Amino acid sequence: MSAHSAADAVALSLAQVESLTREALLACGVDPRNEPAITASVVAAEAEGIHSHGLARLPTYCEHAKVGKIDGKARPVLDSPRPGLVRVDAKCGFAHPAIDFGLPALVEAARSQGIAALAVTNSYNCGVVGYHVERIAQEGLMALGFVNAPASIAPMGGKRPVFGTNPIALAVPRAGHDPLVLDQSSSVVAKSEIVVHQQRGEPIPLGWALDKDGNPTTDPAAALAGSMVPSGGYKGAGLALIVELFAAWLTGANLSIDASSFADNKGGSPRTGQFFIAIDGGALAGPEAAERLERLFGAILEQDGARLPGDRRAGARQRTATDGIAIPRPLFDKLRDYAG
């Protein structure tokens, strides 16, 4: 079992995670054609030890599908306004099937044009951004991903949230290795990590978030009602702005200030966006591209204590494949209730 297990935790294999996720989503009205993409994302998150985007997120998915905040039966629509541009309208449904629908067209366009972009609009929380860019890199393409979220970060010098935690992710294919994946939130920590602490009844570390009055807090509930602390101060807020321009403004999705919360049932669909860039780097990087990349990574790894981004995920995959995971019993009981 994973390290966060407790005395009242429930142990699950990844196969059981998959089954529980599928049953809960289908019981809450998610279309059988949409469910596999969501389930695969949840399982992948648990497999890599990113529990905040795994089963901890599933009750919200189920609740929003039940009450209609997200249309679990929506079918995404794809068009291509330019040869190197792919656009998918999620139709106020889940992001995962919309992204899955657009990725093959993105990969085909990138291989044909050398570089291509996928804009997903009228969407929702997409889980771990690194999961999506890694799949692009597995096709031999360098990938960038930008995702906006409901406002929870105030600009530098301000107190009112304007940006979401707005993550950005990079994936680079490697010869003979899994792709390198860098997945980074614009805030000190992803907001979903605070949700996990709340589910476990644990305080959050000081410095993660502010309450509604702008004061540092260790109370998860107060943090969820307040705002997140940007990573690196001004640089984090600047990164959030960059992501906002790509994922929200450029896709035609809701700006973070206009998106309803991912965490409650208030408001309509968040209608957030995701933006992916895929690059076929072979023509630019030259015939020795793979060797030069490994030389760069080798210069990092030869230093004591240094590691490449994503290395811990690879280790987590090995552990969970053998040992499974553990989740709090209240969370398990809630998911069983959703699954009927």
CATH architecture of the domain at 77-187 and 230-310: 2-Layer Sandwich
Helix and strand run: EHHHEEHEHEEEHEEHEHEHHHEH
The largest beta-sheet arranges its strands as: 2-3-4-11-5-6-7
- The DSSP helix count reads 12
Task: Enter the CATH topology name of the domain at 77-187 and 230-310.
Answer: Ribosomal Protein S8, Chain: A, domain 1
* Gyration radius, rounded: 20 Å
Distance between the termini: 26 Å
Proportion of helical residues: 40-55%
Strand content: 15-25%
Report mean pLDDT, rounded to a whole number: 91
Please name the fourth-level CATH homologous superfamily of the domain at 77-187 and 230-310.
Malate/L-lactate/L-sulpholactate dehydrogenase, NADPH binding domain
Low-confidence stretches: 1-5
CATH class of the domain at 77-187 and 230-310: Alpha Beta
The major sheet is characterized as:
7 strands, mixed
**What gross morphology would you assign?**
globular
Structural class, by secondary structure, is: alpha+beta
Number of strands: 12
